[in-house]
Design goal:
The protein is an alpha/beta fold and 339 residues long. It is built from 11 helices and 17 strands. Helix 8 links the parallel strand 13 and strand 14. It is globular, with a radius of gyration of 20 Å. The chain starts with a strand and ends with a strand. The structure holds zinc ion (ZN) (2 copies). One zinc ion (ZN) binds next to helix 2.
Length: 339
């Protein structure tokens, strides 16, 4: 049997271990992907640290996967070897439960599959994924360019396009990290008056480089007051993991405005009176499904949105993961297999 490398976690809190495994065979309804690149997402810490209830070890993390279809299992008619594809967080759903029948695949109650959690992900030379989980990768994107868009990209793009904001409206993007640096770019390209909000004056140059209309330093200014001076935000994309930072900005919402929360903060404070008097809302956003990823990639090609990445070979996975965890990476960390 042909062998491959996989970077797996053997137990909660355990280190990455590069092991040799047999190249897996795709079962019915599955596709095997020769992995070229896989982004390291902060959510991979759920596998590394064992914060996902019921997760079975060993497990290979990775849900920002880009590669080439290598083999297809029985019953797969929509994919063929040689096609360039990506796999994101949403790894599949049953299609038959009530939520699925309503099109809310993320809410599948019977067989919600999450890449790199329910089954092995992309920190490997090959992986097998449900055919339903694949997105087509355009020619114009290299594997390293496309990989971070499969989670960081889709999450910011999909949240923004489902926000109440319309072209010309003020939109705030809170945070300028892995998610935020993409969120600002997408918001700009969607035609919003994009206000980037982060801590420190040193981030202003980056915000402007990414196309932001205004920059707010939340340490020097009250971001909610400043957003209101600009007319109020129809949407605020909250990409940070600090509930305090979210609480400080939510007051910048215009009437009918929505804060879209995509950063996993523990808690935040918001005035119910402020919400009800202006029909405002705070809403969570789930990344999206495979077709949303495909839309994200296509829009990124159309508009020139790209992730800024630090690239490491698969064998340096431990170092690459530490770099992501340090919060110092500019801005996403991507593993490559050399294939
Ligand atoms: Zn992710
Ligand atoms: Zn379902």
């Amino acid at each position: 049997m042909a062998k491959m490398r996989a970077a797996q976690i053997n137990r909660p809190g355990g280190p990455f271990e590069i092991v040799e495994r047999e190249i897996p065979q795709p079962g019915a309804g599955q596709v095997r992907i020769k992995v070229q690149a896989c982004g390291i997402c902060h959510s991979d810490s759920l596998v590394k640290e064992g914060h996902w209830p019921g997760l079975q070890y060993p497990r290979v993390p990775g849900h920002e996967v880009v590669g080439v279809v290598d083999a297809v299992g029985a019953g797969v008619s929509q994919w063929a070897p040689g096609q360039r594809v990506g796999v994101g967080w949403h790894g599949g759903h049953c299609g038959a439960c009530d939520n699925c029948r309503r099109g809310d695949f993320f809410g599948c109650t019977v067989n919600l599959q999450i890449t790199g959690i329910s089954f092995d992900g992309g920190y490997a030379d090959y992986m097998v994924a449900p055919a339903i989980a694949l997105a087509l990768v355009p020619e114009d994107l290299s594997p390293v360019e496309a990989a971070p868009l499969m989670c960081a990209g889709i999450t910011t793009y999909n949240a923004l396009r489902h926000s109440p904001a319309r072209p010309g409206d003020v939109v705030g993007v809170l945070g300028l990290g892995g998610l935020g640096h993409l969120g600002v770019q997408y918001a700009v390209k969607m035609g919003f008056k994009t206000v980037a909000i982060a801590r420190g004056q040193d981030k202003e140059a980056l915000a402007k480089k990414l196309g932001a209309w205004r920059y707010l330093d939340s340490q020097a200014q009250n971001p909610a007051t400043e957003l209101q001076k600009l007319g109020g935000a129809k949407a605020i994309l909250a990409t940070v993991t600090s509930g305090d930072a979210m609480s400080a900005v939510v007051g910048g919402l215009d009437i009918n405005g929505t804060m879209l929360v995509i950063g996993a903060a523990q808690s935040m404070t918001v005035s119910p009176l402020f919400l009800l008097s202006g029909r405002r809302s705070v809403k969570g956003w789930y990344s999206g499904t495979a077709i949303d990823s495909q839309d994200t990639l296509a829009f990124s090609v159309l508009s020139g949105v790209r992730s800024m990445n630090e690239v490491y070979p698969l064998e340096r996975v431990a170092e690459a993961y530490e770099r992501m965890e340090s919060g110092k990476a500019r801005f996403r960390v991507v593993l490559t297999t050399g294939q």
